[in-house]
Amino acid sequence: MPAQDLEALFERTHVFPQSGRTLIVGSRLYKYRKDRRTLYKDAIGVDMIGGPGVDRVLDLEAFLPSDLGMFSHIECFSVLEHSRQPWILAANLERLLHIGSTFHVEVPFIWRVHSYPSDYWRFTAEAVRLLFPNIKWHKIVYAHERLIDEGKVPMVLVEEHKYFARTEVYGFGERV
What is the C-alpha to C-alpha distance for residues 139 and 107, in angstroms, rounded to an integer? Predict the structure, then answer.
C-alpha cells in the first residue's frame, strides 16, 4: 500500500484530534505535500524556513515565544529527523499542549537521507516513546506496505539480498 494510503488508514483508524487550536510543526509545503492547516478550523503552521504553508518562522528547539500560546492538538510529521536536538524539540512540543490535548507524530525509521536543510536522525517506536514521556500513546506502529505493530519490521528480499525498505513510525496519543 502506498505511503499516503497508509497515513490515511492510520488517521481514520487511530487519530482523533482534540478540537481547538492546532499547531502544524514543519508546515512548509514541498512538492506532493498537502496543506494540513486546512483540516482544522483554528490552525497555525510553523517551520524553521519560511514559504508556502508557514504562518510563523520559528526554531522550536529554542526558547518558546510567549505569544505562541497553548494548543489542543499538535501534528509533527517528518520533522524530528531534521532537528539537531530532537529531545529539546520534543520537550517544547509537550510544553505547548494542554493536559488532555492530542499529539500526532510521523517520523522515518528507515529512509534515504533528505536534507531540509539537514537530516540527522532515524527513530524506532521505542525512541518516540522515550522522546515524549508525557504522552500517553494510544497507538504507535511501523508503516511499511501495511501498518505493523512495534517490533515486527519486515525485511524485503531483492535479488537474494535482504534489506529493510522505507519504513516510518506513526504515533497518536494525548498529553498527561
Answer: 14
